[in-house]
Design goal:
Methane Monooxygenase Hydroxylase, Chain G, domain 1, flat, 2 domains, about 10% strand, about 60% helix, alpha+beta
Length: about 325
Amino acid sequence: MRYLKECFKYNYFKLLLMKIRKLQLVGGSSYMISLPKNWISKYKLKQGDEVILREFDDLIVIQPQIGEKEEIKVEIKEVPSFDKKFLKRFFGSIYSLGVDKIVIEQEGVGRHITDISEISHHFIGMEVLDCTNDCIILHIFTIPDFDVVTIIRRMFQILSGLMAEIETNLLLEKPKDMDVIKSRILRYEDDFDRLYLLAVRLVNRGMKKITISEWDELRFMLGSRMIAKFYEEIADIMFILSRYLWDFDLDVRKEVHEFMMELDTAFRKSFESFIKSDMRTTEEYISFVEKLSEKIQKSIDSNPEGTILKELLLQICRMLESIGEISFNKTVREMFR
């Protein structure tokens, strides 16, 4: 009975939303239908404007031709706080939404221009365009050569560089140039954070253009967002790992070094499996990560020395397994296109 009620409700609301139009023959060979006036007004369309028609099974979806030329702008009348940490999070959130222009109109906001300008440099493409005592305008420039896969590839390269940096110095006694190593690792962290936010921004902008006929593209965007997030979390774990590695004895670091070399291989396989969408490649990758997880877990169970480091590596393995599941699902989906 509940199922019948739900079906009735669904079809009832479907009928309420449905608009019936009659086909009209034009010129003896073409057919025409009228479009709802409120829909035309909503998208500010006029005679001669182009619309996009997409076929999807037994449906035709009509979409307004809205391209990159339409600027997405936010106006802020009152910034909740001018604390630098808050401003970085605040602008980062707006940036990731895919906004093109940020206009801050607030009395005396100009005196914060130094901090705002400095913070804007944390986001790829963001620049201060204008500043007065009561108004600051920031613009985020779109870079056409960037797409989500390109950004994820660069994130992968940075993570690979970070792992290589740690592996190279791991077997040394406390390196004399430890401050130099930490400085290089910090640069990796800054670059990685900027790229992650750019990846989220590109995904959010891309999803705004997706229609009902592009579910595969939507799934790809969501999968890419999840991959980028896992890479970001792996990077965070690597940064934590790098702070404590040299506090442990050489024997512990030797074991961790062996695991990291295998993790490096797993990491390269993770990107390859996502890009290739090849079932064999993906299955080999998942199997490789599962075996590595088991090996690290056995080491934790048999030798408690360095457990905190091994647990961090185990967390990375679990994230790599999740990437494998995303890649596997993507591969299966593409098999049935």
